[in-house]
Amino acid sequence: MTSLAPASGARRATRPSVARRAWRKASPYGYIAPFFTLFGAFGLFPLIYTAFVSLYRVELQNPDEMEWRGLDNYIALFGDEFFWTALRNTFTIGVLSTVPQLVMALGLAHLLNYRMRGRTFFRTVMLLPYATSVAAATLVFAQLFGHDFGLINQLLGVVGLGPVDWQTNTVASQIAVSTIVIWRWTGYNALIYLAGMQSIPHELYEAAEMDGASRWRQFFHVTLPGLQPTILFTVVVSTIGATQLFGEPLLFEGSVSGGISHQYQTLGLYLYEQGWGFMHLGRAAAIAWVMFLLIAVLVGVNALIARRRIRKEAVR
Asked: Where does the source fall among the domains of life (predicted)?
């Protein structure tokens, strides 16, 4: 009788420890379960269902009536000249907005990185365009680029240039839409670059200054190499944003077709026109998946460039 008592007590002692170890293993999954539940419901499921719908003929008037089409939606999509126009416009507007935007953001971040009066104020001002509503900003810029009474054409008249039709001309309308994007996102990217610059060791600048390097040489030989990961990140994020561009071209003239001759219709507007203008939900789902694949390719290119950069640094 006396020999069994310690054994039963040992069992009682081990049971809480086993339960505690099991809880420690399961608790992290419980903490992240809400995120994955929401992601599955509002992210993964719509993505899979969109791929499913893209293989059927579905009309907005009767969404329950689905007719199997296989890859016909994609074949019809690639045979539509307006799709290629929207793809070309998306690329052009993306370049016109991304390149000046990131160059200006880099220059502003370089200025804010030095000690200057009121730099906290200027850093706050940088975020004001980003915090402004897309609708409000686009409507203001639409008035500025007006043909008859727009401020931009009036300024052009002051310097002796004729008025520009910013809504009808292909190049002019794309520049106008790109200007809105540049105004909204330059300050945001400037703060990202500023955070990257402040993570660069100050000793590198001191060593370059001791070697007689000017501020421009320090920028090109110290700042830019240290910002390579940040620059790659902003390039990819800005390119993804340009691929999904929707609000600015839609509200610029209030036309889903992106102008009279589709001169600034992006892939986002083309998707909206097919799905909610022409009621072709299957075609719109196919466009959404094409956009998703384009973004996946861009992310893959970014990963490839980053991997090559890491290998080069490892060799050095």
From this structure: Bacteria
Q: Which residues contact 153 (CB under 8 A, 6 or more apart)?
A: 145, 146, 147, 163, 164, 166
Helix residue spans in 40-133 (DSSP H): 45-53, 72-78, 81-112, 119-126, 128-131
Six token digits for residue 106:
């880099």
The Cα-based distances of 300 to 88, 229, 306 in angstroms read: 21, 15, 10
Nearest to 119, CA basis, from 210, 190, 208: 190
Domain boundaries, the chain: 4-53, 74-315
Please list the pLDDT of the chain residue by residue as tens digits (316 residues): 445 455 555 455 455 577 788 788 888 888 888 998 999 999 899 999 999 999 999 998 888 889 999 999 999 999 999 999 999 999 999 999 999 999 999 989 988 887 777 777 888 888 889 888 888 999 999 999 988 888 999 999 888 888 888 988 899 999 999 999 999 999 999 999 999 998 888 888 888 888 888 888 888 888 888 888 888 889 888 988 999 999 999 999 888 888 888 999 999 999 999 999 899 999 999 999 999 999 889 878 877 877 777 677 666 6
Query: How far is residue 191's CA from residue 183's CA, in Å, rounded to a whole number?
Result: 14
Crossing angle between the packed helical segments 81-112 and 228-243, to the nearest 10 degrees: 150
Coil/strand/helix, residue 58 = strand
Cα–Cα distance for residue pair 285/148, rounded to 1 Å: 40
